[in-house]
TrEMBL record:
Pfam families: rve_3. InterPro entries: Integrase_cat-core (IPR001584), RNaseH-like_sf (IPR012337). The lineage of its organism: Bacteria, Bacillati, Actinomycetota, Actinomycetes, Mycobacteriales. One of its GO terms (biological process) is DNA integration. Residues 15-80 form the Integrase catalytic domain. This is Truncated transposase-like protein IS1601-D.
Amino acid sequence: MRYGERLAEIGALPSIGSVGDSFDNALAETVNGYYKAELIYGPARSGPWKTVEDVELATLSWVYWHNTARLHSYLDDVPPTEFETAFYDAQRSDQPVVAIQ
């Protein structure tokens, strides 16, 4: 499945490719790279994706895992949801905010 061809088939425009999009955002590029390396082309793949729905369901699971379980080194090795909770808890209690490396 080729991204550009699929977008053309359904009459959609890409959300990337100009200033202010993921090609102009290092964090978004990194997450997109992880997504492709860990899920789309990852070592757990046993063959080509069979349907778009298979990719969508796998993407949903990957995003949930990425945000709630995957340790992120730039967040002191905690998942984003845990980091965000600690950040807002610190804001409410006037505690020092956790620093991002």
